[in-house]
Amino acid sequence: MNSPVINQDMILEILSRFPASDIEKSRLLNKECNKRSYESWFLNLNRDRTNSISGYFAQYNGGGDNYQTSFVYEKTGSQNNGVSIDFLPPGKVKIEACDASHGILLCVNETGPSVTEYIVCKPTIKQYQIIPNPTMQTFAGSFGLAVNRLNPFRFKILRLSSLPGILNRNHRTFVSEVFDSDSFSWKRIKNLRLPRKDGLIPSKPVHASRFLHWLSRDDNVIRFCLKTETWSFFKTPNFGVSPRLVRYEGKLGVSRWWMTSGEGLNRLWVLKSSFEKSWVKVKDIKGVGIGENVLWTPSNDMVTL
C-alpha cells in the first residue's frame, strides 16, 4: 500500500505554532517546507502565533569608546517590549557578535581603564553570563558567535586578532582563539594564514550550516568549521563586482552587483550544499544600485536596503 501524501500546507500550519528553534530543526527534514518557511507570510504568522520578537540591534559610536544601541522592530507598529541591553552591568558596552537565529549576543564591557568583561546575553529575557577574558592580549579584529545546542545551552566564540607588526609584517596572519562553553575556557588554535596578496576584510562573519564565513580582499570566502575548528578557502562567483556575503534559506549566499540594459542588479547565489564549493544562481534583485547596500533579507521575498 502506498504511503499517504503529506500535505505541505498542513505541515506549515502546524509548524507556524512552534518556536523558532523547533522550526530550525524541522527545516532539515523537508526541502519544500524549508523553502516556504522562509517566506514572509509564514514568518509573520509564526511571530504572531508564538508572540515572538523580530528585529535587529542598531549600534553607533557616540564618541570615543561610547557606543549607543537601540532595537529596531521588523514589523511596523510592533509593541515596545523593552528589548535592550540596558540590563547588563554598568560600563561602556559594545556588541561584538551575535547568533541572530537564537537571539544571543556577545558584548564587551569596559568597566574601567584597561578592565573589560566578556558577556554572553539574551536581551529578550534579560539574562546574561560573564565569561573569562581571552588569554591573548592582542587587538581583536573580528568575533564570531554560534549556538550549538539549546538544551542544555551550548555555544562557541571565535576571536581573530592581529599579531604585532614585527611578527606579522605582511598582515596576513591572525591569531585564532576559541571559547567553548563546555569547558568554559579559551584555547589557542591554529593561526589563520591568508594566501599571498590577499587580506581579511574587517567585518562580522556570516553564520550558516555550522560554519563562520568572511570575505577576503581577493573575493575569496574564508571559512571556519565550528566542529573541527579548521580553516578553508574558496572563490566567490566570477561575475559582477562588489561581492557581499549573506545568509539565504539557512545557506551561505553571495550577492554581486552588475549592469544590464542600463539597469543595476544584484545577483544572488547560494552554495549548492554546505560541504561543496560550487555556487547556484538564485535570482536577480532589481533596483539596487552600486551605492546601495543590502542590509538583510528577513525572508525569501523581502529585501531591506
Automatic annotation (TrEMBL):
Every F-box associated beta-propeller type domain range: 91-282
Source superkingdom: Eukaryota
InterPro entries: F-box-assoc_dom_typ3, F-box-assoc_interact_dom, SCF_F-box_component
NCBIfam families: F_box_assoc_1 (TIGR01640)
The protein, known as: F-box associated beta-propeller type 3 domain-containing protein
Organism of provenance: Brassica campestris
